[in-house]
Amino acid sequence: MKGNFPIQKLRELQTPFYFYDTDILRNTLELVKKESVRYGYHIHYAVKANANPRILSIIREYGLGADCVSGGEIKAALQAGFPAQKIVFAGVGKADWEINLGLDNDIFCFNAESIPELEVINDLATAKGKTASVALRINPEVDAHTHHYITTGLKENKFGINLSQLNDVIDTLKRLSNVKLIGLHFHIGSQLTDLTPYHGLCARINDLQDQLAKQRIIVEHINVGGGLGIDYHHPNRQAYPDFKEYFGIFHRLLKLRPEQSLHFEPGRSIVGQCGSLITKVLYVKEGSTKKFVIVDAGMTDLLRPALYQAYHKIENITSDREIESYDVVGPICESSDCFGKAVDLNEVKRGDLLALRSAGAYGEIMASQYNCRPLSLAYFSDNL
Ligand code: LLP
């Protein structure tokens, strides 16, 4: 089974380009709303997954907040109309101008990752006569069992405050007059398809909350980050992540204090399946043992396969001929510029269009201009 593409229209466009199916995006947003509203959960879309202005404005229509990791993302979120009061600002290395931007806009919360960062936020807030709301990003030491580049909750990661350092941080907070502790923030990793690590995260948070309660510290909110995975192998059959099961885990296992709110930062699960990278076949080259399909998109357009050996399903959307096996490679001067080995495709000819599926998250936004290549444009199913 292949995806649903308006092939005649796509043929008229300059390749490579991103194609976004807005029905899939909207259905995903309906679903995430439906499954989170029942528990009163707050959703901040992780802008890092895809900051295309049109995508952001569709997401904003559904009332989600934004999770930003840079001043640029804060600007993009504000421009798309996300209310500042629904913006969280995370990141291990926030520059002064970025903190100031957050302060000037009175964003909901800074997710702070270290003592020196808290001190700087305090100084900058003091200079403006403001009080910054902060959540502490705690490293919960829970293994997400995902790719080592995108697992973040382990002790040796650069992210977050280690549990053993928490008391020092709390002591520091007592002397910082212009930051207010309002939350605890966690994120264990990305692309989790086995959700059991979230059970461990809930248990860890429950313990921590008990410990903090003994010191009379009860925060207003808990933020459990993002990470819900998508099905890269079956984007047609499994276009929508299991938000019901995901939120259900937290509802069952996380013990919130009265009045405490729960926040999430999903990125990939919101935008992953709505996007495909469409590329044209330049050449079919016979090697001595295999056939190569050389396409006009490369790792500059979609970096994930080269960087993480990530799998993206590839379909020849303009052919129903017999299936053959090919290595699909791009034109960049790097051996890692390969989208897939021994890929089954309907027989490929020069000029065919291939779709690299599930490319809505960490696709367009991670593109580069290496080899002086222009950035790919984006098109949307509802205004082609
Ligand atoms: N919150 C925090 C603190 C994060 O670090 C991330 C992702 C998210 C939320 C959103 O996670 P998601 O729901 O999208 O899994 N470029 C990589 C993924 C890097 C994820 C970084 N942090 C990839 O292409 O797989």
What's this, in brief?
It is elongated and about 70 Å long.
Word description of this protein:
The protein is α/β, with parallel strands linked by helices and 384 residues long. Helix content is 29%, strand content 23%. The chain has 11 helices and 17 strands. The mean pLDDT is 96. The structure holds ligand LLP. The site of ligand LLP has 22 residues, from helix 10 and helix 11.
Main features:
elongated, binds ligand LLP, 23% strand, eight-stranded mixed beta sheet, 384 residues, alpha/beta, eight-stranded parallel beta barrel, 17 strands
Ligand inventory reads: ligand LLP
Extended strand count: 17
Global morphology: elongated
Which sheet architecture does the biggest sheet show? 8 strands, mixed
The low-pLDDT segments are none
Intertermini distance = 23 Å
* Mean residue pLDDT: 96
Percent range for β-strand residues: 15-25%
Give the helix tally. 11
Oligomer: single chain
Alpha-beta content class: alpha/beta
SSE ordering:
HEHEHEHEHEHEEHEHEHEHEEHEEEEE
Helix content: 25-40%
Question: How do the helices and strands line up, and which of them pair or pack?
Answer:
Elements: H1 7-11, E1 17-20, H2 22-37, E2 42-46, H3 53-61, E3 65-68, H4 71-79, E4 87-89, H5 96-104, E5 109-112, H6 115-127, E6 132-139, E7 161-162, H7 166-175, E8 179-185, H8 196-214, E9 221-223, H9 243-253, E10 261-264, H10 268-271, E11 275-286, E12 291-295, H11 304-308, E13 314-316, E14 323-329, E15 338-346, E16 353-356, E17 377-380
Parallel strand pairs: 1-17, 2-3, 2-10, 3-4, 4-5, 5-6, 6-7, 6-8, 8-9, 9-10, 12-14
Antiparallel strand pairs: 1-11, 11-12, 11-16, 13-16, 14-15
The chain binds ligand LLP.
